[in-house]
Specification:
about 575 residues; mainly alpha; Glycosyltransferase; 2 domains; two-stranded antiparallel sheet; about 55% helix; about 0% strand; globular
């Protein structure tokens, strides 16, 4: 038996093992829900919300949440977003606020408080105003996170109300089409926080401008009616514990504890707590996971195992059929979850389009599904930015992260559009998108993604993952030459152990390694890429042989400022890497 044959057999066996593991995670309804890591940030905000909304009725939830937070404190005294994340200022301040509000029910030990204070003093200074300044500087002009965090701290008496910047909630009553001209300081999905937190700040720290103060008083009830109208049937804005917590604590503290929106938010938190007392950052990523699982199983030639028609019907039914009330994006997109609080976005829409096309080729593409694909393509075309790239949720309100074009989103959108090339509009959109990618490439050949950061890389960015996604898409688009500098960057970023982290010299992870292997294996053969692939496959195969490949690593969410891990990420991307490697070995 030749060495090449033996290598191919090892890859094939590993692929079968990884694919079987992924198939075992599918539920009886034909899709994947995965499991997001618990989150100190989500748990802290949930505890604060419960403490400001009839805490006696939720005493047990508060106590269990506090115990979870005590156990999750890092050695340096702070808290990170996930149990495997280093401490950060924002999450630690939110935990301190939660524990202060929960004192009547669950008092921390002096050691817990002293270590937390020592961390905050070391990171941001001892004075509240220094800590406020540090939080604001973390997020820049974007108040989406900074203002709710500081509001939570003010509720706990950790900062002064006069030091918390206001939010212009009165603008929420204007027609949605006006939002991009109003220069809002929050991103499009954060409309619920704009209203609820803004109302509370108006009560506690009213504007000194008499006209603005009068306008806010006059529009408060109209803004609350809008908040009620946009709350999803699950009660969960975005299906995310932090956003619902900020809304609930703000309404209760503004004198609206009995408002139906607050009651539904608290009900959402009570239903979504984990058995260990903590909360995840979001309910699940079911649409994203299912779309990606379908695509990698197709490459692994395992798609017929899953009864494609059932999964196709489920995924097609997740398409949003009306204009979204937060973002104003038109019908036709997909969000990250099948639950009602999801918001359609470019990444999930692109992946769903590709997955439905693959499912249709494996069974029978019903005409209604074909119409949904057409609507999805139209959705992507309508949100393309003027620079040729794609933003997250909608054509932007301004210059905040979700409004800007992003290389990873653009690469995935181009992959989805490529199936319909030949149409003049689509061809123009693809050409503009490729031009954007060329212009967005950094001098070292890399592309930085929006959605996925790396907490161990310089600046918390993840150019390895972003570049792998773009390079892979360019190969699929027969535009591999444009990805040449990116492939060179990836080869140069490989670690001595054969794996890849988020950037040069960042510790190797399964997620980044698998993404790079997929990208390089799908592209042209060169001596440099072949050598990198050989070392990378050896790293991955060794981890699989040691049964040390399914533990997820934290990965960035939201412009590299929030961290989570997802149980299925290493499994899905390992299947993809092995499938591409097996395919390359056959050619």
């Amino acid at each position: 038996m030749t060495g090449d044959t033996a290598e191919h057999d090892r890859l094939r066996a590993a692929l079968d093992e990884a694919a079987d593991r992924l198939l075992s995670e599918r539920n009886e309804r034909g899709f994947w829900t995965g499991r997001l890591s618990p989150s100190a940030l989500a748990t802290a905000t949930a505890v604060s919300a419960l403490c400001t909304n009839d805490p006696e009725s939720h005493r047990q939830l508060v106590e269990r949440g506090c115990q979870w937070l005590f156990a999750d404190q890092n050695d340096d005294g702070g808290w990170g977003d996930s149990p495997d994340s280093p401490s950060n200022l924002s999450t630690t301040m939110l935990v301190r606020a939660a524990l202060r509000l929960a004192r009547p029910f669950c008092r921390p030990t002096p050691e817990v408080e002293d270590r937390a204070e020592a961390y905050l003093t070391d990171r941001a200074g001892e004075r509240p105003e220094d800590r406020i300044r540090a939080v604001v500087e973390t997020y820049g002009s974007d108040r989406t996170f900074a203002v709710p965090i500081l509001t939570n701290c003010a509720l706990a008496g950790l900062v002064e109300w006069s030091d918390v910047p206001g939010l212009p909630f009165e603008l929420a009553v204007f027609p949605h089409a006006w939002f991009r001209f109003l220069r809002l300081h929050v991103v499009s999905y954060a409309l619920p926080a704009l209203i609820a937190v803004g109302v509370l700040l108006h009560r506690r720290n009213p504007s000194r401008n008499p006209v603005r103060r009068l306008l806010r008083s006059w529009t408060e009830q109209a803004a609350l009616r809008k908040l009620s109208a946009i709350q999803p049937s699950s009660g969960g804005f975005l299906e995310a514990a932090p956003l619902n917590s900020f809304v609930a604590m703000s309404l209760a503290s503004a004198g609206h504890a009995d408002h139906p929106v607050a009651s539904r938010c608290i009900g959402f938190l009570a239903r979504t707590v984990r058995s260990d007392g903590g909360w995840p950052i979001d309910r699940n990523l079911s649409v994203w996971l299912t779309s990606n699982a379908v695509l990698v199983l197709d490459r692994a030639e395992k798609l017929d195992v899953i009864h494609p028609a059932r999964t196709m019907r489920w995924l097609a039914s997740r398409q949003h059929s009306v204009e979204h009330p937060y973002t104003g994006s038109p019908p036709g997109g997909w969000g990250w979850t099948h639950l009602p609080g999801g918001v359609p976005d470019a990444d999930d829409t692109a992946r769903a389009i590709l997955a439905l096309a693959r499912l249709g080729s494996a069974s029978w593409l019903h005409p209604s599904v074909e119409r949904r694909l057409d609507a999805g393509i139209e959705w992507l075309l309508r949100i393309q930015n003027s620079d040729g790239g794609w933003p997250t949720f909608c054509r932007g309100w301004g210059r905040l992260p979700f409004d800007r074009s992003s290389p990873d989103l653009t690469a995935h959108a181009l992959q989805a559009l490529a199936a319909r090339r030949g149409d003049r509009r689509i061809d123009r959109a693809v050409k503009r998108g490729l031009r954007y990618l060329e212009q967005a490439r950094r001098p070292d050949g890399s592309w930085c993604p929006l959605w996925f950061g790396n907490q161990n890389a310089p600046g918390k960015a993840n150019p390895v993952f972003g570049t792998a996604n773009v390079v892979r898409a360019l190969s699929d688009l027969d535009a591999a030459p444009l990805g040449g500098p990116g492939r060179e960057f990836l080869v140069a970023a490989q670690n001595e152990d054969g794996g890849w982290g988020g950037d040069r010299d960042a510790p190797s992870t399964i997620e980044e390694t698998a993404a790079v292997l997929s990208a390089l294996a799908a592209g042209p053969e060169t001596d440099a890429t072949d050598a990198a692939l050989e070392k990378g496959r050896a790293f991955l195969l060794a981890r699989i042989a040691a049964n040390d490949w399914t533990e997820p690593s934290p990965i960035g969410l939201y412009f590299s400022a929030l961290w989570y891990s997802e149980r299925l990420y290493p499994i899905i991307w390992t299947v993809d890497a092995l499938a591409e490697s097996v395919r390359r070995g056959r050619t």
